[in-house]
């Protein structure tokens, strides 16, 4: 059996696969329920109440430099609630997505790998591979690397 991933779109041509084990839930959050916070990195849309806890909302298009400014015209945000368990704590954030593709099973060793990387080079370390899947480029996200980068002082002011 091959590893399972949840596939989603960030932009028209950017498809990402997230390990299914780290996907807690997919939800829609109305813009009015997201509270922006001053003084944090601009790629954080803000926080929302999720099951009685604060959930940090990552504006993925802004995080990956796909847009310059956040669009406040959104009425709803489609987000994937992503969790990552360390030995000390369970971490959770929500990643905004443009479209949902669904669950896929991928043999990463037999897949055609691509040297093409559509994002800025600084983001390459967040992905374990870029492969051709169903005739499209698929970037395989490393959940631990994402959480580590979001906790790095030069990228953010919070520890998620």
Keywords:
160 residues; mainly beta; five-stranded mixed sheet; globular; disordered C terminus
Topology:
Elements: E1 4-11, E2 14-19, E3 23-30, E4 44-50, E5 53-58, H1 60-63, E6 76-85, E7 90-96, E8 99-105, E9 112-113, E10 127-133, E11 136-141, H2 143-151
Parallel strand pairs: 2-11, 5-7
Antiparallel strand pairs: 1-2, 1-8, 3-6, 4-5, 6-7, 9-10, 10-11
CATH superfamily: CheA-289, Domain 4
Q: Give the helices and strands as they follow along the chain.
A: EEEEEHEEEEEEH
Poorly predicted ranges (pLDDT <50, ≥5 residues)?
Answer: 155-160
Strand content: over 45%
Given the C-alpha coordinates, what overall shape results? Answer: globular
Strands, total number: 11
The CATH class assignment is: Mainly Beta
Tell me the number of structural domains.
1
Instruction: Determine Rg (CA atoms, Å).
Output: 15 Å
């Amino acid at each position: 059996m091959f590893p399972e991933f949840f596939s989603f779109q960030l932009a028209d041509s950017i498809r990402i696969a997230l390990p299914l084990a780290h996907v807690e839930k997919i939800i829609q959050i109305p813009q009015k329920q997201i509270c922006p916070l001053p003084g944090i990195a601009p790629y954080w849309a803000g926080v929302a109440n999720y099951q009685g806890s604060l959930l940090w909302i990552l504006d993925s298009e802004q995080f990956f430099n796909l847009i310059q400014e956040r669009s406040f015209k959104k009425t709803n945000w489609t987000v994937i609630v992503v969790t990552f368990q360390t030995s000390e704590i369970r971490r959770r954030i929500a990643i905004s997505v443009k479209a949902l593709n669904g669950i896929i099973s991928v043999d990463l060793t037999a897949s055609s790998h691509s040297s093409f990387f559509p994002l800025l080079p600084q983001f390459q370390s967040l992905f374990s591979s870029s492969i051709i899947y169903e005739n499209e480029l698929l970037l395989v996200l490393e959940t631990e690397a994402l959480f580590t980068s979001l906790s790095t002082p030069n990228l953010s002011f919070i520890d998620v």
